[in-house]
Structure formats: structure tokens, C-alpha cells
Design goal:
heterodimer, A: alpha+beta, protein ne1242 fold, globular, B: mainly alpha, di-copper center containing domain from catechol oxidase, two-stranded parallel ribbon, 8 helices, 2 strands, 2% strand
């Protein structure tokens, strides 16, 4: 039974078409591809810059061992993604950790989405606390988040699952 | 036909079994992991550019209403008797309470690695391997009550504090607002530490493990939690009948939130509906 919501077929399972979803998912994926690409590009950007000089871009950079994990973080560039300042490249044992910025200037990690921390270092340490001694970060490579290359977004998208 | 979403503590043994089996079937088919992936993909924080559809935004409530409905539709394609039950965490507050029972979601994670080892979603049971996770862990994790630094679930009065605010949301429509029903329920507080986690956020923190990260949907309690939040939106609407979803109009070109929040009559990605169209779904389901 198709049950409309304000004229739109929220309940109309059979009327759902794949196309709007594909479009919107690509849009979502594109946004993520952007952020993942920033992470992936970061070493290239850093390598192609003039020799790093002390300055705001290096403020707060860290490289330490915390609970047996090597955590590294450096502010790599300002691509316009964040509103406050640049983008951070963070790794835990060499694997990228995705951080997000809150409007109040604090930081969230993908491991802990519901608590924010004053600095990237604090957010990274908190992520290590959550990881525990055995688990590793999943490597969120561009191909993984890039919808065009991911079966999650394309191959199966129109067949079942989350559709409008 | 309008169907009923029930308090999970009132489900019969048969209803519990059918709910669990429908979830396991979606997982087996690969559909469940698409829900996990979508939730990871839509998380845009408010210190970054881009549209915030699901979190730190007015559309937190309609987005998750639509998300739970989509899962429920998938469950009902498997078993038409199933609806998403809600977990009233103001009443069922212990790590041994419903829904943390062997016939529903299983219990807490074990101490060593937080792995859930009881119930139908335990890794060893063979039906719930984590595929869309933020770590390489293949098993569901929980840390109920946060063993290292214990916290309590939100109380009835903390929930009431949110419900009592007659205004849906306020400028700048993000995680920094201190007024408005939406963020009082979503739960972005100020400062750091345990006092900064309110209502919705605090429950994610209390469950811990998978529920704490971007892939929180991997724990099926996600749906029971969000069904309960959805019920709160319905209660708020009943209590404040002259108030509606805000913003009614998109922030203008000169506004820092221009293009970053969804107004009442704008489409709410990735769905085809607007918040206006999602404010009343009483023709589809109601809460028992």
C-alpha cells in the first residue's frame, strides 16, 4: 500500500526509482571524496611546498607514542573545507584518522563522533583510548569513499536498501 | 494501515524473535550495511563547509525520522508484522535491562576488547560481522555505562528540559546553540567532559563501542534509540501545537549558514521529502 506524505510517496515502496537516490548518493559521496582526497593529497601538497617554515601552519603538530601507538598530526593546508583554519592530516600507526571540526573550534574523530576535544592531539589520543590495544583504524582510502568506485554507492544502490 | 511502534520492554517473545530475525535477514542480504554506510557518509560537522542534513542541524530530527522509516520499510519487506521498537532509556537504565538481553540485542561487551559475546549479534553466532566499520574489528563492540569513567543515561527530567522548550531551533542552527528543542535533544553541550553530553549524544556515549563512532548504525540499538527520539519529537509537537520546524525559510545569501542547513520546504538529502512533509507521519505509524 502506498501511503503518501504530503503528496510524496514515502510509503510507496514500488514507486521508488533508483535515479534520485543515485544522484543524491553521488552527491554525498562526492563530498566525502573531497575530504578523503584532501587527506590522500596532503603528503603531495606538503612535499611540493617550499621547505616548511615555522609558522601558524605548524602550530600544534605532534608526533608521539601514546599507549603504544604512534600518533602523528600536522596541519597541511587550508583548502577551504574548514571554516576556522586548515586541514589536519592525522595518523595512528600510519593509518589515517579522520577528524572533523565543530563550529566552536573543537575537534571530533570518526572513532568518537559524539564528543569533541579542544585540540587535534586530544581528539587523537581519545580515539586511541577507544581503539584499545588490538584494533586498528580502517584505512579510509579515496577509493573507499569515492562513490564512483565503491559498490556500496553504485553497484547495489538502485536495487535495494536506502532509497527515497 | 497505521502500524504501531512499541516500547521494546513490552514486546512478546515472538515479537522479539521476529524483530531480531528480520534484522539478521537484512544483514545477510547486504542491505543493512548500506544503512551503516549512508550514516557515515552524511556526517558533516558544523565547523566545516557543506550542507549538514543529519547532525548538528535543525534537520537532525526529520533526517533520522526518515532514516528509521526506511529501515522499518526494509524490515517489513522481510516480515510485515515487524515494526521498530523504541528504547525508553529514562526507564530501562541498567546494563542488564531491556534491550540488553539474550533474546534481543545481547549484553555488554567483554572487558578485554569490548566484544559483544551474547545474543544474536555476537560475532561467534555468525550473523553479525561488521563490514562498514571505522576500525578493522569484525565484531560488534559495547562499553555500557563507560567502565573507565562511568556515566549515567539521561534522566526523565533532562529529557523534559528539552521538551519544555517551545522553540524548535534557533540561529545559527548548529551545535553551539543553547536554546531550542532540537539541540537540547540532540545534545551538544558546551565545554568538555561528561557534562557536555546531553540526551541523544549522552546515550551514544553510554552505549559506547560501535555506537560512539561514525558507524554507530552497526549496533541495532541505534534504531531503538532513534525511534525513542522520534517519539519525543511527536510529544514536543503535541505540547507546542503552534510551533513548527525551523528555519521556515532558507538562510539568506549573507548568512553564514546559507546553503548549510535545510529549511522547512527544502528537500532533505538524500531523501526526496522536505522537513515539512516529514513533520507528521501519523498516517504511517504511531507510538504505543
Amino acid at each position: 500500500m502506498a501511503v503518501g506524505v504530503g503528496g510524496v510517496a514515502v510509503g510507496a515502496e514500488q514507486q521508488a526509482t533508483a535515479e534520485p537516490v543515485r544522484r543524491s548518493r553521488r552527491e554525498v559521496a562526492r563530498g566525502l571524496l573531497g575530504s578523503a582526497a584532501v587527506l590522500a593529497m596532503a603528503p603531495v601538497v606538503a612535499a611540493s611546498r617550499p621547505l616548511p617554515t615555522a609558522g601558524p601552519a605548524d602550530a600544534g603538530a605532534f608526533d608521539e607514542t601514546y599507549r603504544g601507538r604512534r600518533i602523528q598530526g600536522v596541519q597541511v593546508s587550508d583548502t577551504g573545507r574548514t571554516l576556522v583554519d586548515g586541514v589536519w592530516q592525522i595518523t595512528v600507526d600510519g593509518r589515517p584518522l579522520h577528524l572533523m571540526r565543530r563550529a566552536d573550534g573543537t575537534w571530533l574523530s570518526i572513532i568518537d563522533h559524539y564528543t569533541s576535544y579542544r585540540t587535534p592531539l586530544e581528539a587523537t589520543r581519545a580515539a586511541v583510548d577507544e581503539l584499545g590495544p588490538h584494533r586498528k583504524l580502517r584505512d579510509l582510502a579515496p577509493g573507499r569513499f569515492g562513490g564512483e568506485h565503491s559498490g556500496v554507492h553504485t553497484g547495489e544502490g538502485g536495487q535495494h536498501g536506502v532509497r527515497a | 494501515m497505521v502500524y504501531v511502534r512499541k516500547d521494546v520492554s513490552t514486546l512478546t517473545a515472538g515479537e522479539r524473535r521476529r524483530f531480531v530475525n528480520a534484522l539478521l535477514e537484512l544483514k545477510r542480504r547486504g542491505e543493512y550495511d548500506e544503512f551503516v554506510r549512508l550514516h557515515i557518509d552524511v556526517y558533516t560537522a558544523d565547523g566545516e563547509n557543506g550542507l549538514r542534513s543529519a547532525h548538528m542541524a535543525p534537520s537532525f530530527l526529520p533526517w533520522h525520522r526518515r532514516f528509521v522509516l526506511e529501515l522499518e520499510r526494509a524490515l517489513r519487506r522481510v516480515d510485515s508484522s515487524v515494526t521498530v521498537p523504541y528504547w525508553d532509556w529514562t526507564r530501562n537504565r541498567k546494563a542488564t535491562s531491556v534491550p540488553w538481553t539474550k533474546d534481543l540485542l545481547g549484553g555488554n561487551g567483554r572487558r578485554s576488547d569490548r566484544q559483544v559475546t551474547t545474543g544474536p549479534f555476537a560475532y561467534a553466532a555468525g550473523h553479525w560481522t561488521i563490514k562498514e566499520g571505522v576500525t578493522d574489528g569484525r565484531f560488534l563492540t559495547r562499553d555500557l555505562g563507560r567502565a573507565a569513567a562511568p556515566i549515567q543515561l539521561p534522566t526523565k527530567s533532562e529529557l523534559q528540559w528539552a521538551l519544555a522548550d517551545p522553540v524548535y531551533d534557533v540561529r545559527p542552527w548548529n551545535s553551539t546553540v543553547r536554546k531550542g528543542f532540537r539541540n537540547k535533544l540532540e545534545g551538544w553541550g558546551s565545554g568538555s567532559g561528561s557534562a557536555s553530553w546531553l540526551n541523544h549524544n549522552r546515550v551514544h556515549r553510554w552505549v559506547g563501542g560501535a555506537m560512539l563512532g561514525g558507524a554507530s548504525v552497526n549496533d541495532p540499538v541505534f534504531w531503538m534509540h532513534h525511534a525513542f527520539l522520534d517519539l519525543q519529537w511527536t510529544r514536543w509537537q503535541r505540547a507546542h501545537r503552534s510551533h513548527r520546524y525551523l528555519p521556515a525559510e532558507p538562510p539568506g545569501a549573507g548568512d553564514a549558514q546559507h546553503g548549510r542547513v535545510v529549511a522547512r520546504h527544502e528537500k532533505l538529502p538524500p531523501w526526496d521529502e522536505t522537513p515539512d512533509q516529514l513533520e507528521d507521519l501519523s498516517r504511517i505509524y504511531r507510538y504505543g
